[in-house]
Amino acid sequence: MNDRSPFVSRVLFPVTVMFALSTVGALRSAANAPKSAPTIVVPYGASEYKYQVVPVDDGIGFERPDFDDSAFGIGDAGFGTREGYCALNNPGDVRTEWPVETDLLVRKTFELPVGTTDVVVYVAVDNDVQVFINGYDISDGLQTHEECPSLDSFTFAVPDSLLQVGTNLLAVRARDRGGLAYLDLEVTRRARLRLG
Ligand SMILES: [Ca+2]
Fold first, then answer.
1. What is the tally of structural domains in the chain?
2. Does residue 20 sit in the same domain as residue 114?
3. Dist. CA 26 → ligand 1 center (Å)
4. CATH (domain of 94)
5. Which domain holds residue 171?
6. Are 69 and 48 in contact (CB under 8 A)?
7. Does some domain include residue 196?
8. Cα 1 to Cα 6, 76, 169, distances in angstroms
9. Which of 62, 81, 101, 158 could form a disulfide with 119 if both were Cys (CB 3.0 to 4.6 A apart)?
10. Cα of 146 from ligand 1 centre, angstroms
11. Do 82 and 117 belong to one domain?
């Protein structure tokens, strides 16, 4: 009695399914588009960070791209205590002194080319860390850490929507709560590869 339903089921439904499948296929191939292996943009032990040692919680706004950091010093990573019972607390890995029981603010710009994806920030820290890219918190607040620092003990993925072609800003607050202090960072990126 309803002569539309056979039409819907025999013609429209298969067409709808085919369209849906082709759409999913297109999305899937975009998501799976080949990407380069990670490239290191800022290596561990990088030179010439802008940095400032401040009392706990001071320096509000330092993460903003338009913040005036002309009063900051220039220092090389890692930052921290040059001697101690942890492997990274040695005079070779620590190139800039960061006193315990303070906050350390660091800023560093880096360049990204067109087609960059999947930027990741890796951290070695004693104790806690909060990471910003272009003024946005990518670590979901200050993340706490105990025991000795180790490379890659935190990895923070940066949403592609925060990335800018050209100059980007890495800004990090590290907090020491006593004993030894340490901070070093690495930033990597990937790139979409052109098809065909
Ligand atoms: Ca500590």
1. 2
2. no
3. 49
4. 2.60.120.260
5. 39-191
6. no
7. no
8. 10, 81, 67
9. 158
10. 8
11. yes
Per-residue pLDDT of the chain (196 residues; tens, 9 = 90+): 445 555 545 655 555 555 555 554 444 445 567 888 999 999 999 999 999 999 999 999 999 999 999 999 999 999 999 999 999 999 999 999 999 999 999 999 999 999 999 999 999 999 999 999 999 999 999 999 999 999 999 999 999 999 999 999 999 999 999 999 999 999 999 998 876 5
What one-letter code names the amino acid at 8?
V
